[in-house]
Specification:
It comes from Urocolius indicus. Pfam families: ECH_1. GO terms for molecular function: enoyl-CoA hydratase activity. Keywords: Lyase. This protein is α/β, with parallel strands linked by helices. The chain has 2 domains: 10-162, 2-enoyl-CoA Hydratase, Chain A, domain 1, CATH 3.90.226; 166-213, Lyase 2-enoyl-coa Hydratase, Chain  A, domain 2. 50% of the residues lie in helices and 12% in strands. It has 10 helices and 8 strands. It has helices at 26-30, 34-52, 69-76, 103-111, 113-122, 128-133, 149-161, 166-179, 184-198, 202-212; strands at 10-12, 19-21, 58-62, 65-67, 79-83, 87-89, 126-127, 139-141. The strands form 2 sheets. Strands 1-3-5-8 form a 4-stranded parallel sheet, with helices on both faces. A 4-stranded mixed sheet has the order 2-4-6-7. Helix 3 (69-76) packs across helix 4 (103-111). The radius of gyration is 19 Å and the shape is globular. The relative contact order is 0.13.
Length: 222
């Protein structure tokens, strides 16, 4: 996906009704020795990092349970949409563990340190409305009879992104992600570098031309 220039947005959804991702299989984990567990978690953390590093916007469509590593998967995405009935939580402490695939780092960056500590320390599960109220998800929607309300809302959100200039969106994501890890002066420099890469693009010229000619722009990602 990272190398496919035709991809504009990636939506993560489940094919299992009522479950987005239930996290690690603890029965499988119980059969592993300590070294195998460490290797498993490192691979999982690397996978989440790869998802977070995708250059295009990513949306998690949470139509059911997103627990442990399942919520860490959603946190690795740029945007999250949840059904009001969805259940989310970093429940690792209830099993004698702690989040190991990015949860301790991405949750506080998403909802703030205090809320993240509370959710991780208690292992509490919250529904879609609670997740929305604390900023964990961008949108919450009532679940439908098909059980895919979050996916349908995620598609609508993706369709809002699709018409925009692809390279500009990629640079915007890069500037935000890199800028959030540094002081604001360094972040401004990162924004400047991303902007400089966008200036010579055909899409920028097309955007200006479309504005002058009072027509919708036709972006190509070039």
């Amino acid at each position: 996906l990272r190398l496919d220039e035709k991809v504009r947005v990636v939506v993560f959804k489940s094919e299992v009704k009522g479950v987005f991702c239930a996290g690690a299989d603890l029965k499988e984990r119980a059969k592993m020795d300590d070294a195998e567990v460490g290797h498993f978690v490192r691979r999982l953390r690397n996978l989440m990092d790869e998802i977070a590093a995708l250059p295009v916007p990513t949306i998690a469509a949470i139509d059911g349970y997103a627990l442990g590593g399942g919520l860490e998967l959603a946190l690795a995405c740029d945007l999250r949409v949840a059904a009001s009935s969805a259940k989310m939580g970093l429940i690792e402490t209830t099993r004698g563990l702690l989040p190991g695939a990015g949860g301790t780092q991405r949750l506080p960056r998403c909802v703030g340190i205090g809320l993240a500590k509370e959710l991780i320390f208690t292992g509490r599960q919250i529904d879609g409305q609670e997740a929305f109220s604390m900023g964990l998800v961008n949108h919450t929607v009532p679940q439908n009879d098909e059980g895919d309300a979050a996916y349908q809302r995620a598609l609508a959100l993706a369709k809002e992104i699709l018409p925009q200039a692809p390279f500009a969106v990629k640079m915007g994501k890069l500037a935000i992600n890199r800028g959030m890890e540094v002081d604001i002066a360094s972040g401004m420099a990162i924004e400047g570098m991303c902007y400089a890469q966008n200036i010579p693009t055909r899409d920028r010229q097309e955007g200006m031309a479309a504005f002058r000619e009072k027509r919708p722009p036709q972006f190509t990602g070039k």
